[in-house]
Every structure is written in C-alpha cells, then in structure tokens.
Amino acid sequence: MQITSPAFENGERIPTKYTCDGDRLLSPELTFTGVPETARSLALIMDDPDVPKVLRPDGNFTHWVLFNIPPETTSIPEGGTIGTAGVNGTGETGYRGPCPPPEYEPTMHRYFFKLYALDTKLDLPEGATKEEVEAAIEGHALATAELYGTYSRN
C-alpha cells in the first residue's frame, strides 16, 4: 500500500499554500494505491512529532484525523475530506496545516501522513481523538503506508 501527494514528494517540503503561512485549512491532495481487497475501511492520521516539549509535553501535534474512509477510496482531493473526522490538536475537526513556532528549535518540523487499511469499520463517533482512533486500530491493520513532508516558517 502506498500514500503519495502530487503536491510534494516524500521527505520534501510541503508547499506553503497548505500551511499557516498560506491557507491553514487547505489540505494537499493525497493518493492511495495498493489497498488490500479485504480492507473494510481506511484511516488517516497526520501529525507532527517535532513540537517543543515546552509547548506540548508529548512533543506531538495532531493535524488531521479521518477514519471509516471507504476502502475503495483512491484519493482525497485538495481541500477535501472523506469518511468520519476526528479532532485535531486544536480540538476541532478537519485539517490544520503545518505551523512550526519559529521561536523554538527545531524550526524545521516533519509532518507524517499515516494511512491504515483496516479489517473493520471503527465504532467511534465523529470527533474521536487520535489516541482513540489509534487504540481502535490496534489489531485491525491489514497494511500501513506513510508519507512525510517538512516545513519551516518563512
């Protein structure tokens, strides 16, 4: 299984238009291939593990959570959504673009888009947290894929 984006290559800089220096609510297009035929749903989590611990003790910020995405889905269009939305690090649903605080090191952060093919649909309500989705995924992942980009403030 693979997750890619026409907006940036794996390990490359996420374009400014998808960040707080652009339109913070505009997500990049994502494309999925190789989803197992036995998948019953997909889940997507985007997070930043490079947050200064002074701001978040666990060093992580959740940017996007989607689950119960139909398994036949091959892409999420730019600015689009599909499935059920979980909450991001602001406590709201939907995408929140990269916005690393320039006054803290590291100024360059990594942003991971993690795709999970699951053997079940998740019995969670809209607004579930990343932690709740990850707990529900445990033992149900048929395949996983990851795409990451970087970003540093202008």
What this model shows, in words?
By secondary structure, the protein is mainly beta. It has one domain: Phosphatidylethanolamine-binding Protein. It contains one helix and eight strands, in the order βββββββαβ.
Compressed to H and E, one letter per element, the order equals EEEEEEEHE
The helix count comes to 1
Mean pLDDT rating: 96
Query: Quick one: CATH class?
Result: Alpha Beta
CATH architecture assignment name: Alpha-Beta Complex
Determine the N-to-C terminus distance. 34 Å
Number of strands: 8
Q: What is the CATH superfamily classification?
A: PEBP-like
**DSSP strand (E) fraction?**
25-35%
Amount of helix? under 10%
Q: Identify the overall geometry.
A: globular
Structural class: mainly beta
The main β sheet shows up as: 5 strands, antiparallel
CATH topology value = Phosphatidylethanolamine-binding Protein
Arrangement of strands in the largest sheet: 6-4-3-7-8
Number of domains: 1
Q: Return residue spans where pLDDT drops below 50 for at least 5 consecutive residues.
A: none
Radius of gyration: 15 Å
Task: Indicate the topology.
Elements: E1 2-4, E2 30-33, E3 41-48, E4 61-69, E5 75-76, E6 84-85, E7 108-118, H1 130-137, E8 141-152
Antiparallel strand pairs: 1-2, 2-5, 3-4, 3-7, 4-6, 7-8
Task: Give a summary of the structure in a few sentences.
5% of the residues lie in helices and 33% in strands. It has 154 residues and is mainly beta.
